[in-house]
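Exercise: predict the structure of this protein bound to 1,3-bisphosphoglyceric acid.
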Amino acid sequence: MRTIDDLDVGGRRVLVRADLNVPLEDGAITDDGRIRASLPTIEALRARGAKVIVCAHLGRPKGEVKPEFSLAPVAARLGELLGADVAFAADVVGGSARAAVDGLADGGVALLENLRFEPGETSKDDAERGAFADRLAALAEIYVGDGFGAVHRRHASVYDVPKRLPHAAGGLIAAEVEVLRKLTEDVERPYAVALGGSKVSDKLGVIDNLLGKADRILIGGGMVFTFLKAQGHEVGQSLLEEDQLSTVREYLRRAENAGVEFVLPVDIVAATAFSAEADHGVVAAGAIPSDRLGLDIGPESGKLFAARLADARTVFWNGPMGVFEMEPYANGTRAVAQGLIDSGAFTVVGGGDSAAAVRRLGFDEAAFSHISTGGGASLEYLEGKALPGLQALED
Ligand SMILES: Nc1ncnc2c1ncn2[C@@H]1O[C@H](COP(=O)(O)OP(=O)(O)O)[C@@H](O)[C@H]1O
Ligand SMILES: O=C(OP(=O)(O)O)[C@H](O)COP(=O)(O)O
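Solution:
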């Protein structure tokens, strides 16, 4: 992959695809890790006199303009961190974007509105995606891919635009790939993978491939309930992927045959509503009341997970063990984060929310071997899959 050092960017319009998908609460950014991780590439381009046009997504607005998914707060924070004005375009490829780009001086920075406000960005139809990619590419002369967290998406800004412009990988993508490559080569064993979070259907698929690579797979977060249900337990109102039950049963069977250990929670913190104030308590994993939903793994599970991490030599963790944003449901995530640290293994934490959880819960980032900005992206990388956003940069 070419890097930005291979490009002549002075005075040129450079489109940087970043991952600025940060957590927000009531319109305020609660963790700016992904913005900070994007700074070195933007700063390097500015220092070389490029006109920097940053584009990114926020959440999943599904091709519609939804004000709660505006990147405006991100533009403000990016400006603060850069110590420079960031021109914020109120659209992605319309008049506002064009005006913001035309107004850029050498070394200036503009941020376009949320890419996913445009249906073409995420379209599965090549022609629709391509038409949007044409418009986005027309804003710039050079493309820099630096949104590691989105490289597994075959989206216009990730996959199609680099086919239309001279391109290179930014520093973040280069750094992420360098660390994650180690986990696809000779890993020190036992190799444990801990999975949680809420993007259950996205991430259940990666287990297929992990069964041939990991020695232990620990399941927490919103993933748990599809497993518990597959084992015949009731899960009440918890997050559930009904159509994945047979797949999960198959995983459990294959794991047994392959000698891979699945570690499932033995207890669950179940609440009457998705709220910090809701009535909640610890129940056995097999006895979630029908009117409750599981929002964290329980204390015995936290101990069990830490014990199954203790002798691991390599650990990859993606996805919080519970709804850590609410204190009553943060202990499972705490226990697993501490378990990684205490193991002394080579530890990689991946994912926007997982990385945010580590920081929010007060852990020292330096206590982990690597904190990746991508969850789904790093999991798919570890599967050995060709990722559209990396493929496009290699071509
Ligand atoms: N039991 C659960 N029910 C619902 N949501 C959960 C549960 N456990 C964790 N979550 C949520 O999962 C979200 C993070 O999931 P995900 O995006 O998959 O992780 P990452 O960004 O680290 O890849 C968090 O916002 C957290 O509140
Ligand atoms: O947050 C992200 O991924 P992650 O939760 O797997 O770390 C990326 O910004 C990709 O977002 P998407 O999963 O909505 O495509």
